[in-house]
């Protein structure tokens, strides 16, 4: 294997001496953000627990900075590796400040006395995750999202070389999700801290990760750059999706299209159709959309939600054949929704379609 900072070399992980996932061979460079994705119960946490020595490895080896992970003393490892796992801690009588301060313990003497510098690092870490106001609160009596932020602060003030997190965003609201991911990105890209984490939000994984590990079955099904992994069929197979869609271009999840015969025609384009498609889908109304250029943003969604889409090739005049087809299909519909799609020289025929819709008496404004 190449000279990687963190390596899983034919690693097998599992419980009670039985391998759940085997033959994991993955190399991670310093400062990379690597995200594990995969369905519930696929083994993401099991891998993370195994590479942080919380769980005994079944086979193979893990190397960290060219050293076998098992050869680190716990004290050495805790100055270099910060771990934020999902297991619920129930510490007695500890404030959030106390919990964050434990991140400094690998650096303090036996009595665990914090120097002024340690205290400053604790405060700084709490500020970074917007948790200053939680300092004096009992760690057992805060919300799940607040707990996640406090545990991240503890990891930050540990000043690790590598940080390993299990679903760090699961309880966070959108602002704190963005904050957390920005903090991790800054740690990785400015301080060259390596980040390995599992995420359920695949849209976020797509946006933050340098590499993605897909966990499925008894092995790693794919490992690579998000550009290669986030392909419609790959995500569909990974999660066995048969009741909706994932659009890798926008990272959006779509519910399945409404079933039944489509009696509604939507004349749209240039993004004007998207709110109409979403409304029709909520009403469970099947529809046909057109005439859409295949590079139109409306087309991206219509191909997933519409019963049929009448299309034209990008930057071409709408052909007579396409126009006639749209006219025929539209005439068979009971309702025509027309958005305020702009009409120009290329799509002049769309103007004619709108005129025909007006004359039909079936047109409503979308
Ligand atoms: N302590 C344990 N002993 C035995 N089996 C376990 C133990 N913990 C988890 N498992 C099993 O190992 C498999 C993988 O679990 P794991 O928690 O690693 O999955 P995951 O991908 O993290 O799931 P999720 O996305 O739901 O968090 C599951 O079938 C789970 O039931």
Automatic annotation (TrEMBL):
<dbReference type="GO" id="GO:0016887">
    <property type="term" value="F:ATP hydrolysis activity"/>
</dbReference>
<protein>
    <submittedName>
        <fullName>ABC transporter ATP-binding protein</fullName>
    </submittedName>
</protein>
<keyword id="KW-0067">ATP-binding</keyword>
<dbReference type="InterPro" id="IPR003593">
    <property type="entry name" value="AAA+_ATPase"/>
</dbReference>
<keyword id="KW-0410">Iron transport</keyword>
<dbReference type="GO" id="GO:0005524">
    <property type="term" value="F:ATP binding"/>
</dbReference>
<keyword id="KW-0472">Membrane</keyword>
<dbReference type="InterPro" id="IPR051535">
    <property type="entry name" value="Siderophore_ABC-ATPase"/>
</dbReference>
<keyword id="KW-0813">Transport</keyword>
<keyword id="KW-1003">Cell membrane</keyword>
<dbReference type="InterPro" id="IPR027417">
    <property type="entry name" value="P-loop_NTPase"/>
</dbReference>
<keyword id="KW-0547">Nucleotide-binding</keyword>
<keyword id="KW-0408">Iron</keyword>
<dbReference type="Pfam" id="PF00005">
    <property type="entry name" value="ABC_tran"/>
</dbReference>
<feature type="domain" description="ABC transporter">
    <location>
        <begin position="6"/>
        <end position="242"/>
    </location>
</feature>
<keyword id="KW-0406">Ion transport</keyword>
<dbReference type="GO" id="GO:0005886">
    <property type="term" value="C:plasma membrane"/>
</dbReference>
<dbReference type="InterPro" id="IPR003439">
    <property type="entry name" value="ABC_transporter-like_ATP-bd"/>
</dbReference>
<dbReference type="GO" id="GO:0006826">
    <property type="term" value="P:iron ion transport"/>
</dbReference>
